[in-house]
Write a structure and sequence with these properties.
Shape: globular
Structural class: mainly alpha
Low-confidence stretches: 110-116, 131-138
Helix content: 40-55%
Largest sheet: 2 strands, parallel
Number of domains: 2
Mean pLDDT: 80
Strand order of the largest sheet: 1-2
Number of strands: 2
Order of helices and strands: HEHEHHHHH
Number of helices: 7
Oligomer: single chain
Distance between the termini: 79 Å
């Protein structure tokens, strides 16, 4: 895992929270693998964030109850990816890509929509936030009837 981090130099780590589906053993194994990924990221001072599966599906498809195939189709459409003949083989990879896209949206990096976060605004304009909370709006002068 450290070799991958050192090769690709990620700025952040986004992962999908494990959930209990049909097989509790699968969830435990996934949790261990995620723990290794998080530990590796933290050892390189890389921040991480975890998203619930419903949050990822909601961000990508608009529905928190979307299935893997719907997520894959929406990713293909959103990212303008070519169709894949063997799509079922790649559903785990599309899940990972969906987490990355969800994280991108959550960070306010949606360039198409021109979205910006309040946190970024306050960071870029520290005086404006303070001025807005310490100054009172002036009352308009009352006009005399003619």
């Amino acid at each position: 895992m450290l070799e991958l981090i050192d090769e690709f130099l990620p700025d952040e780590l986004a992962i999908e929270a494990p959930f209990y589906g049909v097989n509790v053993q699968s969830m435990l194994k996934l949790g261990r693998a995620q723990g290794v990924a998080i530990a590796a990221a933290l050892s390189r001072d890389i921040p991480f964030v975890e998203y619930a599966p419903t949050k990822v599906k909601q961000a990508v498809t608009g529905s928190g109850s979307a299935d893997k195939e719907q997520v894959a189709r929406m990713l293909r459409q959103t990212l303008e990816l070519p169709p894949i003949e063997e799509a079922p083989k790649f559903l785990d990879a599309t899940d990972a890509l969906a987490v990355a896209l969800c994280h991108h949206y959550q960070q306010g990096n949606n360039v198409k929509a021109g979205a910006k976060s309040w946190g970024k605004f306050l960071e870029d304009n520290p005086g404006r936030a303070l001025a807005a909370t310490t100054t009172k709006p002036k009352k308009a002068a009352a006009k005399k009837p003619a």
